[in-house]
């Protein structure tokens, strides 16, 4: 069966510090991978998605970036965090574009 | 730009009652998903609807899709406290794998 992992689970960072969140998927090959952000009490905003190694599509221009160095690894980064980057970051995977997206446990980021 | 609206945004209902959550979307789509989110937790997949007239049921929840009306409904039958959560619909039109999520409906089932 497939499993999706995210870490860390919780992170508190000062404004201006760098960020690296990691997501890995087990039990499948060549998944589509996604990064979403959910602000407190709000819906989900798609940040990035990837259909293969090194292929990243950005949905929202901002100070975040994503990379996919391996088939089942997706990384979300920032060089300098802003207060507005606080939120619940969710990674998801799907087999293809019509398949259900399955979400990881999430990382709760607080920028102070 | 695709817009997805849910209503109501908040729903408080008594155990044993029936109710429906509505999900409207603004452009043609060939797939619609329903998810559940418990407080502080991630999203759990409930249903995927891929064609006009599709109906899926799991326990006390039933989802349907009307692509002509651009409307999906999530019907709750004889609500129980365990159904308290936030429910999201998500729509995925066209190419690639992008989903646009609705604003969510927070359901509170009271005893």
Describe this structure in words.
The complex is a heterodimer of chains A (112) and B (111). Chain A has strands at 3-7, 10-13, 19-26, 32-38, 44-52, 55-58, 64-70, 73-78, 87-94, 102-103, 107-111. Chain A is mostly beta strands. In chain A, β4 and β5 (44-52) form a beta hairpin. The radius of gyration of chain A is 13 Å and the shape is globular. Chain B has one domain: Immunoglobulin-like (Sandwich). Chain B has strands at 4-7, 10-14, 19-25, 32-37, 43-49, 55-58, 61-66, 71-76, 85-91, 100-101, 105-110. In chain B, the strands form two sheets. In chain B, strands 2, 4, 5, 9, 10 and 11 form a six-stranded mixed β-sheet that branches. Chain B has a five-stranded antiparallel β-sheet with strand order 1-3-8-7-6, with no helix packed on it. The mean pLDDT of chain B is 92. The A-B interface holds A 32, 34, 42-46, 49, 51, 57, 59, 90, 92, 94, 96-98, 100-106 and B 30-31, 33, 35, 41-45, 48, 50, 88, 90, 92, 95-104.
CATH homologous superfamily assignment of chain B: Immunoglobulins
The name of the CATH topology of chain A is: Immunoglobulin-like
Helix-strand string of chain B: EEEEEEEEEEE
What class would the helix/strand composition of chain A place it in? Answer: mainly beta
Please name the two chains that share the biggest interface, counting residues whose Cβ lies under 8 Å from a Cβ on the partner chain.
Answer: A-B, 24 and 24 residues
Measured by DSSP, the beta-strand proportion of chain B falls in over 45%
Number of helices of chain B: 0
Helix coverage percent of chain A: under 10%
Shape of chain B: globular
How many structural domains of chain A? 1
Report the sheet-strand fraction of chain A. Answer: over 45%
The CATH class of chain B is: Mainly Beta
Rg estimate of chain B, integer Å: 13 Å
For this structure, what is the CATH homologous superfamily of chain A?
Immunoglobulins
Terminal residue distance of chain B? 41 Å
């Amino acid at each position: 069966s497939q499993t999706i992992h995210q870490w860390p689970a919780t992170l508190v960072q000062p404004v201006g510090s760098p960020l690296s969140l990691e997501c890995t998927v087990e039990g499948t090959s060549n998944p589509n991978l996604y990064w979403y952000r959910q602000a407190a009490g709000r819906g989900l905003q798609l940040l990035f998605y990837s259909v293969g190694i090194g292929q990243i599509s950005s949905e929202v221009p901002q100070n975040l970036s994503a990379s996919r160095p391996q088939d089942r690894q997706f990384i979300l980064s920032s060089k300098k965090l802003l207060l507005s980057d606080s939120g619940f970051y969710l990674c998801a995977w799907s087999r293809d574009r019509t398949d259900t997206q399955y979400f990881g446990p999430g990382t709760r980021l607080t920028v102070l | 730009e695709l817009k997805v609206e849910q209503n109501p945004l908040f729903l408080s209902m008594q155990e044993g009652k029936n109710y429906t959550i509505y999900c409207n979307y603004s452009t043609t789509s060939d797939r619609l998903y329903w998810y559940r989110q418990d407080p502080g937790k991630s999203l759990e997949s409930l249903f995927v609807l891929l064609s006009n007239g599709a109906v899926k049921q799991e326990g006390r929840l039933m989802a349907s899709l009307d692509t002509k009306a651009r409307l999906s409904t999530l019907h709750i039958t004889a609500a129980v406290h365990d159904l308290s959560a936030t429910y999201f619909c998500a729509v995925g039109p066209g190419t690639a794998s992008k989903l646009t999520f609705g604003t969510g409906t927070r359901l509170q089932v009271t005893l």
